[in-house]
Amino acid sequence: MSEKPSVLVIGGGIAGIQASLDLAGRGFQVYVLEETPTIGGRMAQLDKTFPTMDCSICILAPKMMECFRHPNIKLLTYSELKEIKGSVGNFRVKILQKPRYVDGTKCTGCGTCAEHCPVEVPNEFDMELGMRKAIYMPMPQAVPRCMTLDKENCIDCKLCTKMCRAGAVDFQQEPQDVNLKVGAIIIATGFNQYDPSEIVEYGYKKNKNVLTALEFERWVCASGPVAGHLLRPADGGIPKRIAFIQCVGSRGTKFGAPFCSSVCCMYATKEALIIREHAPDVQVHIFYNELRAFGKGFHEFVNRARTEYGVNYIRSRPGEIKEDPRTKSLTIWYDDTFTREIKSLNDVDLVVLCPALLPRESNRKLAGIMGIELDECGFFKVVHPLLAPVDTTVPGIYVCGYCQSPKDIPDSVAQASAAAARAAEALTLVQVQRTE
Amino acid sequence: MAELQIEKPRIGVFVCHCGINIGGVVNVPQVVKYAQTLPDVAYAEGNIYTCSAEGIDSIKRAIKEHSLNRVVVASCTPRTHEPLFRGACVDAGVNPYLFELANIREQCSWVHMREPTKATEKAKDIVRMAAARASFLMPQQESEVPVETTALVIGGGISGITSALCLANQGFKVYLIEKEPELGGMLRKIYKLYPTDEDASKVLHASVEAVMSHKNISVLTSTTTKAVNGYIGNFEVTVLKNAQEHKFKAGTVIIATGAVEFRPTNMYGYDKYDRVLTQVDLEQVLKSGKAAVDKFFKPQTVAMIQCVGAREEKPPRSYCSRLCCMVAVKNAMLLREWYPSSEVYIIYQDMQTYGKDYEDHHRKAREAGIRFINYTKENPPQVAPLPNDRLKLTVYHALLGEKRELNCDLIVLSTPLVQQEGAKELSKILKVPLGQDEFFLEAHVKLRPVDFATDGIYVCGTAHGPKDIGEAISQAYAVSSRAAGPMANRKVRTEAITAVVDKERCIGCRMCENLCPFGAHRVEEGKSTVIEALCKGCGVCAAACMRRAISMKHFTDDQIMAEIKTAFIMEAPKPPASSNLEGGT
Amino acid sequence: MADQFEPRILGFLCNWCSYAGADLAGVSRISYPTNIRIIRTMCSGRVDPLHVLEALRQGIDGVLVTGCHIGDCHYITGNQACEKRVKFLKDTLDQIGIDSRRLRLEWVSASEGGKFARVVKEFIEEIRQLGPSPLRKEILESASQ
Hints:
The complex is a heterotrimer.
Chain A: E1 6-10, H1 14-25, E2 29-33, E3 48-49, E4 54-55, H2 56-69, E5 73-76, E6 79-87, E7 90-97, H3 112-116, E8 120-122, E9 131-133, E10 135-136, E11 148-149, H4 159-163, E12 176-182, E13 184-187, E14 191-193, E15 210-212, H5 213-220, E16 241-248, H6 264-278, E17 283-288, H7 298-307, E18 312-315, E19 320-323, E20 330-336, E21 341-348, E22 350-355, E23 357-359, H8 363-370, E24 397-399, H9 409-435
Parallel strand pairs in A: 1-2, 1-13, 2-5, 13-24, 15-22, 16-17, 16-22, 17-18
Antiparallel strand pairs in A: 3-4, 6-7, 7-12, 8-9, 10-11, 14-23, 19-20, 20-21
Chain B: H1 2-6, E1 11-16, H2 28-36, E2 41-47, H3 53-65, E3 70-75, H4 78-91, E4 99-103, H5 105-109, H6 116-135, E5 143-146, E6 150-154, H7 158-169, E7 173-177, H8 200-213, E8 217-220, E9 223-231, E10 234-241, E11 244-250, E12 252-255, E13 260-261, E14 276-278, H9 279-287, H10 290-296, E15 301-305, H11 324-338, E16 343-348, H12 357-367, E17 371-374, E18 382-385, E19 391-397, E20 402-408, E21 410-413, E22 417-418, H13 421-430, E23 457-459, H14 469-489, E24 491-494, E25 499-501, H15 511-515, E26 521-524, E27 527-530, H16 540-544, E28 550-552, H17 557-566
Parallel strand pairs in B: 1-2, 1-3, 3-4, 6-7, 6-12, 7-8, 12-23, 14-21, 15-16, 15-21, 16-17
Antiparallel strand pairs in B: 5-24, 9-10, 10-11, 13-22, 18-19, 19-20, 25-28, 26-27
Helix pairs in contact in B: 2-6, 3-4, 6-17, 7-8, 7-14, 11-12
Chain C: E1 9-14, H1 18-27, E2 36-41, H2 49-57, E3 62-67, H3 78-95, E4 103-107, H4 113-130, H5 134-144
Parallel strand pairs in C: 1-2, 1-3, 3-4
């Protein structure tokens, strides 16, 4: 057991990273538990961020590297939480580190193994729009920079072992039990997209030119499956008209979730601007309900999109997207609420559905392990939504970011620091109690 | 370290593609080739993402393999990435001040996207300048300064109180100052809180009690900030309480000065008619209790107009004030509860009832019969007087396409939160910026929402921008974490960039002493000395010294001249008539 | 000659405000011509009259000095010192026969990406009208002797 107070952070996205850096910076030992092979989370998947239009990975990567290099931070990626016992000041945590079958101390991330691997599998990081090999790195800026072998899809040909010059492939690796003693826990598990397949009128998955928002981010990202070239997914054609549909599975429809995901109006505007910057001759239409641009600089951002960039906002919830079976182009049927007419937008090359962003299903299991509560929407419940917004119902366990309630990156970062403060407060109290 | 001064520079140049951000415009391989031809450049390579783990490793490897003692990375802005690459240099045994970042993205590829050939030539020039400067770079040592474990929290509203308590609970001493005679800020004016339906005054009372009784917190009411000198870890604070000065030291400063409601003078008859109130006016009325309100009036028809004085064409009030829609729904439901037979209308542009709880409340309000009328900016509602103090509200219902007329007993205007006068003064005292919206401007809108570019000063709550109580409290906890960092470590590393006086050349004219706003020059016995701990590295003294006796570390004349001379390819200049244009070291 | 003349502009940008403003122009993808090269200093007050003179002596056609708006200087009064120096320099330049319009002082804040781009564009055009620096011709002439 270390002398330093220690904290477990569950989730290696921007919120988890911020909380870790705050705590590590003041001398706490931090363990970051991340289920995928790399930290970075959703922010790493984005092309740009609103309203500054910063390149997302460009501002995130230095923080990821800082986490990796920090002497007080230990990254436990590709790992699962098994058990938590104890109480604030003395949580005993059991973690299972899944085997990567690659020795992290030897792997240089050169990618030769992946070059020779014969198995291709949809790449989760690219929202399955692109492929990866059975031995892979999810993204070019992955931290830690180490290959991972997906045993489920591996065919055991052992070509990777043969080709690896560093001798880093190790099929003998076993799952590792990691037992930790920590004083506090911070949960930052983020979100998943609602799957709009059940809204058959929109034809998601059936119509190839219909993508979800995260899919579109990967599509248009320079490091994504088509190197950021703006193309129609169905046939690689050049799009001339792109439409966004807001509130898919959000806000009191019979599908999805009743709440507002808070960020979709803004990210749709952002993606619209990405398109207009990429290709100024492409028309962009955004079908919205209420235009939610309430944060710092947001309203001005949307105005800029409207006036300077010519993005067309249509107040409507479209009823149907029809695909032309020959051209694969789409027609959107909608009810324009300002003119009260039924209209159609024809020859749409690409439709981006902006779905509800939901707390992860796995939060349920996590809550069970820790004895904390979820609310009726699946977000982690806090002691008081105003006065104790990051305290869960168990002392010593805190929550921040989207998994607490829908919010954007700045609010997630602030809440992450807030959770770090509460953890530090609790551990100071525990220390005081121990010495008394 | 002295050997490096005589050692011949061996510069490594790393040119980044940054995916297609740079590589899509600038011909990176050409720039790499060009870099190889530059004087003192021993090695050059291109990277896809120099800031990635692979890129960093490549730099470290090259330093070792090619015995590099200077590093130039040509990529994005040093404002975000300099620390990262400096860290890589340190890891590989090169002093971090022997690193130079050439900005070929924000200041080249991104602003010359349609001129790839010219952008490539410019990138070469930029790399040439950086390499020329790098030849003259010297190793520098950072120093550490001790940090006072005391925080100054300016503003005794709920944000200030929350951060004061959090810091005090971590063992730090806190001075909490408040300009009013009482703590509480905006919460003192609010009736009930959503979603818990608690009395704001009860919540406030509990927090105020906690802060007044905490042994680590000194509360000073009727107190304003007069001056804050010094820097992180060592702020010298002077406050004014009832015309008396109090001085103390602080390690960190937290701004929690809140915001005020915009008064909609001359809008919708606000000053003309008694029955036109703002939301905060309404909260005060509600606080007086139902019996008191009944005596005032029994509203049959109430209309609330959103976005009054907000979301305007031009700054400062071009923003959405975030919480007015939530407040309107809350108060509309409250009025309905008290007067179940009343009709309450919310006249809105876009209902900003975001997230979980607010969306829920919005839906419940519609189900409860609160009426929502959509209006557009081009067609705002009109207010006209009626007999018996009533008011006629005429609004074009944009969704139904028809004009509606409401005879109202009460009209409530939802106006934005705006920055307060005192804060503008404070921004000058602390040297922290305000944005176009006049709220405090943070270091980075996405990733550093509660920091300032100046170390040791932080901001939280509505002083940063409109937000609800839960969000303000999250930010208040956030600044506690940020401020606790340097105070918990009891020290902080400071920049190595300071002024140096060549005592032989100095004639003690006191020009520097008079010019320096930080008091970092002290002339004694006819010579000036620099007090390193106070020097902020601005270089104003160096440019002023008539004897050229002052040099700025890391921004020496040699280094700047090298950049000037290599900015464009010129023929060799005529040698100057007099001997030495370049003074200092 | 006038069609071929591409002004060479040197910009001194202060770290806290104008350099950030120029970065913002980049982040916002606001285009401006490639004629400018940038030198970063911590404060506009660091810009020494001899730096400006050296730039002109090198044959640079225009020097743009930028800093924080008065009252916003990160080092409190640095930009005020800069303002005084630029005034003095302009008088000196006129005195020695170099058009003082070749030296321009602008305040650009960290949020004024658009302004930075606009100022650069305007200054380039102004210098284009003024023509190449007289020192530039001399360099070329002396080289050909």
